[in-house]
Specification:
This protein has 3 helices and 5 strands. The protein is of the alpha/beta class. It has one domain: Ribosomal Protein S5, domain 2 (2-Layer Sandwich), CATH 3.30.230. The radius of gyration is 14 Å and the shape is globular.
């Protein structure tokens, strides 16, 4: 299993929050901003108000698993920050994948998101 390149610095997260485009749903908030040729990088945050460390880590694992199924469709150089919400604890990664796919399509990260069997 190959892990995606992740955001590590606070300035990278703040840049996505300040300058990025945002899409929100009850289970996930997505921020996206173009970067300078560094590929598609992700950052995942889960606030303490979500619960204990076990619950926050579960939220991160769910988001990471959902992104792994969507990441081959990502095109361009983007910094993407996913923020876990309270409903993230209650969903599975397979339920979060369509939400993430719609967010990334609306933000312009995924171009041809025809996942149906029509082609």
């Amino acid at each position: 299993m190959s892990y995606p390149v992740t955001l590590k610095q606070n300035t990278e997260f703040n840049r996505a929050y300040g300058r990025g485009k945002v899409k929100a749903s009850p289970a996930l908030v997505t921020y996206a901003v173009k970067n300078r040729g560094l590929g598609c990088r992700i950052g995942i945050t889960a606030a303490k108000k979500l619960g204990s460390a076990v619950e926050r880590n579960r939220c991160r694992r769910i988001i990471r698993a959902a992104f792994s199924s969507v990441s081959p469709m990502c095109s361009g150089n983007w910094d993407i920050v996913f923020v876990a919400r309270f409903k993230t604890k209650k969903v599975k990664s397979t339920d979060l994948t369509p939400v993430m796919l719609s967010h990334l399509t609306e933000l312009g990260i995924i171009r041809n998101a025809s996942t149906g069997a029509d082609s």
